[in-house]
Amino acid sequence: MTSTLTALVLVGTLTPSPAPSSSELLGRQVLAALGEHGVSGEVVRVVDHDVRPGVEKDMGPGDAWPAIRERVLAADILVLATPIWMGQPSSVTKRVLERLDAELSEQDEQSRLLTYGKVAAVAVVGNEDGAHHTSAELFQALNDVGFSLAPGAVTYWVGRAMETQDYQDLDETPEPVATATATLASNTAHLAKLLAGAPFPPS
């Protein structure tokens, strides 16, 4: 299938490359599922880059966010893949949200945010409860800065409470997770295609 849409997966693991990451694994599975709908893309493990704290587009010399931001704005779909820590999105993922806050000050010639028309989705992994809470936090923040969300825009896996098994340690992907990932990909790609052909009106 010829690809007409692109996706960027930002992984909020706390673990630098090349160590394995469960959140990156699920993020890559989302990207593969999007590929079945003609979407190509890439994965960026944010912790491998010097993304400075702040709420500006560019926090000065050495800040890696401006280059990542260019990739965000070039993509039709943004996927945030995060682990759960203490019932919350990771600190790396929250830093991405803080940097995306700068988009509230950026508009096109028709007074629309540059993120209007872009679609977001979320992938969550953890060894404790909190996937719904984590996705709710990310949904609200992503929508605030201009991204659209399709129905079923999250896939997640959480292990049994107080145990140590990671998603990447499973012998196979659980069927409910695979189904949620497929739904996310189908609905997200569908919405992105619709918005590509019918942009939001001027603000």
TrEMBL record:
SUPFAM superfamilies: Flavoproteins. InterPro entries: Flavoprotein-like_sf (IPR029039), FMN_Rdtase-like_dom (IPR005025). Residues 8-152 form the NADPH-dependent FMN reductase-like domain. This is NAD(P)H-dependent oxidoreductase. It comes from Cellulomonas edaphi.
